[in-house]
Design brief:
The structure is a single chain. With 338 residues, the protein is α/β, with parallel strands linked by helices. It has two domains: 131 residues, NAD(P)-binding Rossmann-like Domain (Rossmann fold, 3-Layer(aba) Sandwich); 192 residues, NAD(P)-binding Rossmann-like Domain (Rossmann fold, 3-Layer(aba) Sandwich). It is built from twelve helices and 13 strands. A seven-stranded parallel beta sheet has the order 8-7-6-9-10-11-12, sandwiched between helices. A four-stranded mixed beta sheet has the order 3-4-5-13. Strands 1-2 form a two-stranded parallel sheet. Helix 4 crosses helix 6. It starts with a strand and ends in a 6-residue tail after the last strand. 38% of the residues are buried.
């Protein structure tokens, strides 16, 4: 049986990965602590490790893993910006991820955030529990007839666009690699980023984090957005310059913001800090705005998505252990690698 350290484990991980591991002859060693240079020694005599979005797979960590005999890093997520791919390649470490688990899960969470923010459902819920049945301050607007702008038309972006179309919204989209056939069939319109920002009542982010998209939403792009527009991000936190976003909120240029991701999630998201003082001043400031809604990176958290993440991750570990080809499209390479 192949022993695989499993880092940043949560209670909801164990049933899904436990079942897959038993059936696939994988012995997952569940650790609640994160993987870093300081904890990499826990992978001694292991050929593979399983990591998550907030594990710190920098050069020091990867070097220690290689010293311990690790040859595969299995990321149980789609994103891979947490790993130094260049160093991994130099050390002979292969990296796999789960490029697509349930795009429906994230698309539906995107719309849930927008509806909650727009109709002030979170505020109404808290009021009613205190027997306050006043409707003051809870006015939203019909999505029907409004314009949604989606940046990124991968699987999640496309599904989100289709849901918005179902509400009767005009849908503008922007992507450096447009799928014109899909847009024609779905009733979406490709346009420039500037026009999308200027015309949209709702701007939703669905693009990966790359050097080109880092701080895509910044002081300049926020200034282009329609006054009173909503901004939704269920993709990657660093797509948004948090300091610029806070300034735009202070100046009341935005109608509201809904975030399932944040620029610096490590040590905060996925943790219970209810008895601690929040040390991140920017996050604390965001949470102080009544028109800001934040969830803790839970867009993926459905039974279907967790099952698929466990299946793909375990299948790659099984194949690696047997010396077989890894699942197509799951291996990640450093830029410029063949």
């Amino acid at each position: 049986m192949m022993k695989v350290p499993f880092y940043d484990a949560k209670p909801y991980d164990r049933p899904f990965f436990g079942r897959q591991g038993v059936s696939g002859n994988i012995d997952y060693q569940f650790h609640e602590f994160r993987l870093s240079a300081e904890t990499a020694a826990s992978a001694t005599e292991c050929e593979a490790v399983c990591a998550f979005v907030n594990d710190s797979l920098d050069r020091a960590c990867l070097a220690r893993l290689a010293e311990e005999g690790v040859r595969l890093v299995a990321l149980r997520c789609a994103g891979f910006n947490q790993i130094d791919l260049k160093t991994a390649s130099e050390l002979g470490l292969r990296v796999v991820r789960v490029p697509s688990y349930s795009p429906h899960a994230v698309a539906e969470h995107t719309v849930a955030l927008l509806l909650t923010l727009n109709r002030k459902i979170h505020r109404a819920y808290n009021r009613v529990r205190e027997h306050n049945f006043s409707l003051n301050g809870l006015v939203g607007f019909d999505l029907h007839g409004r314009t949604a702008g989606l940046i990124g038309t991968g699987k999640i972006g496309k599904l989100t666009a289709q849901i918005f179309r179902g509400f009767g919204m005009e849908v503008l989209v922007h992507d450096p690699y447009p799928d014109l056939d899909w847009a024609s069939a779905a009733g979406a319109i490709y346009t420039s980023l500037d026009e999308l920002l200027m015309r949209s009542d709702v701007v939703s982010l669905h693009t990966p984090l790359t050097p080109e998209t880092h701080y895509l939403i910044n002081e300049q792009t926020l200034a282009l957005m329609k006054g009173g527009a909503y901004l939704v991000n269920t993709s990657r936190g660093a797509l948004i310059d948090t300091a610029a976003l806070i300034e735009a909120l202070k100046q009341r240029r935005l109608g509201g913001v809904a975030l399932d991701v944040y620029e610096v999630e490590e040590g905060v998201f996925f943790e219970d800090l209810s008895h601690d003082v929040l040390q991140d001043d920017d996050l604390a400031r965001l949470l102080s705005f009544s028109n800001v809604l934040v969830t803790s990176h839970q867009g993926f958290l459905t039974e279907e998505a967790l099952s698929e993440i466990a299946r793909v991750t375990t299948e790659n570990l099984i194949r690696f252990g047997r010396g077989d080809e890894l699942l197509p499209g799951t291996e990640v390479f450093a830029p410029g690698s063949p």
